[in-house]
Amino acid sequence: MENNNKAQKHRIRIIRENLVAWGFLLPSALGMLLFSIIPMFISLYVSLTDWNFAAGLGNWNFVWLDNFKALWSDTWFTASLKNTLIYAIVTVPISLILSLLLATVIDGFCKKKVAGVVRVAMYMPHICNAVAISAVWMALYSKYGPFSLLMRALGWSDPPRFLADYTWALPALMLVAIWAGLGYRIFIYSASLTALPQDLYESADIDGGSWFQKFWYITVPLLQPTTFFLTVTGIISSFKVFAYTNVMTKGGPGNSTYTMVYYIYTTAFRYSRMGYASAVAVILFLMLLAITIVQWVHNSKNEQR
Amino acid sequence: MKKNKEAAAAARRKRPLQKTIVQYIVTVVIILVALLMLVPFLWMISASMKMQKDVMSIPIKWIPEYFYIDNYKRVLHIDAGDARDYHFLLAYWNSIKVSVISTAISILSSLMAGYAFAKLRFKGSNVIFIVYLSQMMIPSQLTLIPRFVIFSEMGLTNTHMSLIVPKIVAVSSCFMFRQAFLGVPDELRDAARIDGAGELRTWAQVMVPMVKATMAAQGTVQFLESWNSYLDPLIFLSNWRKWTLTVALDQFVGIEGTQYNLSMAASCLAIIPVLVVFLFGQKYFMRGLTVGAVKG
After folding, report:
1. pLDDT tens, A77-102?
2. How far is the C-alpha of B261 from the C-alpha of A142, rounded, in Å?
3. Is the interface score ipTM higher than 0.90?
4. Which phi-psi region, left, alpha or beta, contains residue A58 (left: φ > 0; alpha: ψ -120 to 50)?
5. pTM of the model
6. Residue A270: φ, ψ to 5°
7. Chain A contacts of B295, Cβ < 8 Å?
8. What fold is seen in the domain A67-304?
9. Interface touch A35/B165, C-beta < 8 Å
10. Which CATH number is correct for B88-290, 1.10.3720.10, 3.30.390.50, 3.40.50.720, 3.40.50.2300?
11. Of B122, B231, B295, the CB nearest to A21
12. Residue of A nearest to B264 (CA)
């Protein structure tokens, strides 16, 4: 009799605990369901239709993979895919090399106070909104602006109007991105540097290793996990670039600075082609998914070791 | 072995002077690099105080001979006559309102979810946790179109609700709070229970105060994210009365973009409050960033 009572009390306690936990989880889980999971499935579905927003909700034909097939002969899409990939392939390594070098040099040579101030100064662009940054760089890049002035001073007699030039517009945007993201990467590298074990450096000192040897044979390999993390996050944020294009160049001249998100934006919200735009969004998602899977495989391998 | 020791001793003797000289040179170079990186900001501030005819004058006058406050007046529409009003102050207010409320909401719901994951046992907790993890991969760009359609069906476009309500789920903050709550000993919770506090009170008065540092860090991160967000407000808000600062600035630049003195004044107004907040709160902010990024 007593035993039975105990079991029942236990069961009630478990039910109570479950209810409490779900109560705590509810706002966040509900938000996730409504604003992330359901929209994701809608996106996947809409990408298989020819839906135009102007036709109204429900007025769509199911076209299976037609959108995806059409994309590959759409030069605006292929250009935006190409630009996005170039943007990632160029900006990520350059930013990583620059920030790794700067972080190591700041850490190794500057007094603590100076290092702190310098890092904060370099970090500043990262917290400013991309629209304001774009406005500033539009002025810097303008025909008589300081950047053209600098280029002339460096001996380039006739610098182009960077943002209005078919070949130079994308590199110009990439420079802004590198500038804006450098401080963040330096900061992450610095934080990892302080966590490195010192004994290897001490034995290198005894053996008379030069600064560069220590950098190349100790620092770089030890920072490999941080480098990997920054590579992955860097690629992901490059794939999502939108604001610089939208404010500075509107994708132009021609399609020279069209990026995938910018193409999604114009297709969906200027031309109301929701189905087609969703197909682009799905491709973007698959690209990000591939990167994330690489990251997971890499991390789980490292953990096993 | 002996040779090694001698060499090390010689190196040690040689080092001090040479090392300090190298140190000073490198420090100077690094400071120059930092200044170079600040040049766009310095130019922005300087240009925002000039008249249009002087903005592009050569050589660049970094400190203008006068302070032309009319640029700022024009942007904020103070005694500007019939010049176009860009409603910058209203956009400021909208941005503050949206950012403060969405930060509060995201922190509150993440505090709750993080606590549930870290300290409460419930059926399906592993599955839910994996679902949360996998949501990190879903870019907001993928869900943008459906969110727009849902909001316009519900009549939520052109309201600030469309920006605030989705903030109820902030997956990365949930993880940070879970991590933080895992570090709080269970004894505290049990003690509060024995003293007769209910679940909600235990959470609010005993557990939450233990993760204040994470709260400050995640608060700054969430606030900045919401303050700087651009794509969502651009799409959800078409009425100027609802515009946040990024959208208002975008419009301003689109129309007055070639009057660089004006667009620089507008950019200054958009950037400087954030920089001030950042300089005061950098300790928390930086901590919020490095947690999770740096292993060990």
Report:
1. 999 999 999 999 999 999 999 999 99
2. 13
3. no
4. left
5. 0.88
6. -105, -40
7. 225
8. MetI-like fold (1.10.3720)
9. yes
10. 1.10.3720.10
11. B122
12. A136
